[in-house]
Structure formats: C-alpha cells, structure tokens
Write a structure and sequence with these properties.
Length: 323
Amino acid sequence: IKQYVDMDASCATARKEKEEREYISMRMRRWLKESWNPNEDKKDLYTDRTWKTNELTRIPPMYYTDCGGCSRENQQIFSIKVESIRGGLRWPLDVFGVVTARDTLRMEHKRNIVFARSRSNCQTITEQCPYLELTGPTRAVVVDFDPGSFEVVLKVKGATESADRDLSFLVLPLKECYQYRRYYTSKHSTLELTLRRIDRSVEATISMRLAAGSSWPRGFQGVFTASIASIDDAEVSLLSFEDDKLPVIADDGIIKLTRRVVSVEREHGELKVSATTWCANDEQDAMTNDIVFTPRFAGRSCGVLNVGTCKIQITVAWSLFDW
C-alpha cells in the first residue's frame, strides 16, 4: 500500500511542477508579446511598475565596485554573425539598427545596448566578414530569476529610405539563450549568436592607458581581446584597428575601447586580457601578449601589458550586484 501512496504523491508532484512550468511559460510569452514595441509604455507583470521601453539603462558599469553585493548569473555575449541571407538580399550589406538586452536588475527593464547604428552610420558587412561590430553590453546582463529579453531589429540600407529592407527581427527570452552557439531565423536572414551563461559571476570593466613615455609601435595593427578561464574557444573583442591607428585620447593616453565589460566566474575564475599585433608590411607571424587577473568581490586590479617596447596600463574594476 505504501508503494502506491508514494507513486500517487510522486505523480501529484510531477503534475504540480508541470503546471508551474506552463504558467511561467505563459507569463513569459505574454510579457514578450506585449513589451517589444519601443514606442509604448509597458507594465511589469510581476511588480505592476510601468516603464518606458525605449529608455536606456540607467545602471552604469562599476555600479557596485566600491560597495558590496551578490554574485549572479550573467549572459556573456561574444559575437553576432549574419550566417545567411535570403529574400533578394545580396552581399555586401549596409546594416543599421539596434540589438538590445533587457534584464530586471533593480527591476529596471530598460535597454542595455549591444549594437546600435543609425542609417547615416551603417556598418558594411561582407560574406567574408559577416560579424556585427558590437559595442556592448554597457554593463553585465543579469539572467537569473528574470523574464528578460534579447531583442534584434536590423535593417539593410537601400538607395533611398523607401528602399530599405528588413534584415532581422527577433525577440528572444533571455532564459532561452543558454546555448553556446545558436541560430535564429527570421524572414530574410539567419543569425548566429555566440554566447554563454556565466554562473555566480562578477562584472569586470576594463580600461587601458598608454604608460607615460610609451607609444604604439609604428606600422603595427592589432586586436585586444578578453577571455575567461572556463571558456577556451571564444573571446570578447575589446578593440580592433588597422594602420597603426591606435585610438588614443591625446591628453591622457586613454585607449578608446569598443567594448569593455566582461563577466567572469567569481570563484576559481580568471580574466585574461590579450593583445595580438602584426605589421602589415612584414611577413613575420603575429605576436600575442597576455596579462591575467584574478577576480575580486569589489575594488580594482591593475597591471601592465607589454606590447614590444610599448607599455599599456590596464585597470579592471570588479562589481557584484544587488537583488
């Protein structure tokens, strides 16, 4: 008799868990359906709080660098690639639009920009190099206990505005963006999103400055990247430049990075910042120099990255999160 009682209890528990999953899924679908329009005010299903969906996040990076907090699950976005096109589109493409992530850190629901280009400043991508030049996220994207979304609105510039074409329109629940590399298809294209969920992570905000008396090697171009110990097959591109034109603010030597925020495992993690350089007029192989930082709960870490005779001062600001 006890065996049948246990089986009945197990079935009842399974039914309850299934009902809870279906209920949460229904709420998430409803939230996504009602919240994607950037021109309307929306109401949070969980808090009854109204927010403007076209507003940018007011939470900057390093928000908790000088105080305590909790480690949380973050979404690391490595790259977005236009995998294929259809519907009469032809390479190359002049792409403009917005890619954003929305989470509920501090119940904000505002746009955390990952990619943004206006029609007058579109990015030209080719079949040989079909990656978007990401500039974000501007802070870490928090995904635990969160019905947030990842939103893509991309267009292809035509000869006139009336000739512009849709490239991709996607609204994805952040909780579903857990696979390392995943493909998403819309009417005119398929995008490849390379991302990874980082458990119990800390936000790392990277800044670089030429050391006093240092200058970038003449004729060298390069790529600065960041990677973490648990992922050895993907990097975050911080800066890529050609023709020895290192983007430096002349007055104080600060290097203008394209991206600077990376999520790192809080425990047993490592952040590696690398510089790969080569001379366009030289047949020698590219050289790579690295510096490794151990995550902290707060505060800053400093180090020097040597690139030939050039010394680059690197500062990493560590930040946890609140609930």
